[in-house]
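Lab notebook page, bench 4
Experiment: in silico fold of construct C2
Operator: M.H.
Input chain length: 285 residues
Purpose: comparison with the prior construct
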Amino acid sequence: MALAGAGAGGAGLAVEGGLLPGRSTLYRALGLDGAPGHVPGTQPGPLVSGHFTSKARLGASVGWTIAYPPGSAPGDRLPVAVVLHGYSEDHTDAFGRRLGLEHFLAQDHARGGTPFALAAVDGGDTYWHRRVTGEDAGALVTDEFVPMLAARGLDTRRIGLLGWSMGGYGALHLAGRLGAARVASVVAESPALWHQASQAASIAFDGAADFARSGVMGRQQELDGIPVRVDCGTGDAFCPAARDYVAGFDAADHPAGGFEPGAHDMAYWRRMAPAQLAFAGARFA
């Protein structure tokens, strides 16, 4: 895997791909990452999975899973948050022994949260936007997956978007493209962000023009009217850029979330999941 230069871009991709220890290992060694989060034992609601052939992903067979809250069933007209996975992962990382979001969703429901579904799909490693090859994981979400969710009875008039790492960037990017009329909330966890094309991981964008077209830095106004939450661990290589991104919002639109001890890993993401799902659910209420 190629890395960008020695700046934040190279470090960020190394964190995502697990290739270099970097900032996360240093903070972990110093005991600065905080307590790890754990998947709760709450019994989840139904899960439905499948595959379809994606035109947007140039004929790739993509997997997907929908997680329903307890007491609901496939076909129920629930609002839905689309979950975008990180680099070198797929939709299954959102559930099961990895992030375990179906258990956190059940926990939120048990605490009186607004019932909603979570739906994840395989986006490949193309950073959730159109690439020079013609592959477009963003269009997969908006033009194929969301209509499929609607056909299964879910209420997709205004969706939530939630993602981590590459998917955190993707959630912000797609929310900006769709706008407040289509997006109820966006949660970006440890988003893969860079200030300049020269800093970005080489796999993330097809050069400076693609970065200028598809980057989210400096485009905070595209999220006007959308409730935004951004979380990032202070031991994460992406933390400095995430702080700058959050600082770029107007005071009246300052995102929820924040920065606390944590690394670019599942231990931190599991710890943040309850608050993030509560945030998304409250915006559907």
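Observations: The helical segments are 8-17, 22-29, 101-110, 137-151, 166-178, 208-214, 239-247, 266-284. The first helix runs from residue 8 to 17.
Next step: discuss at group meeting.
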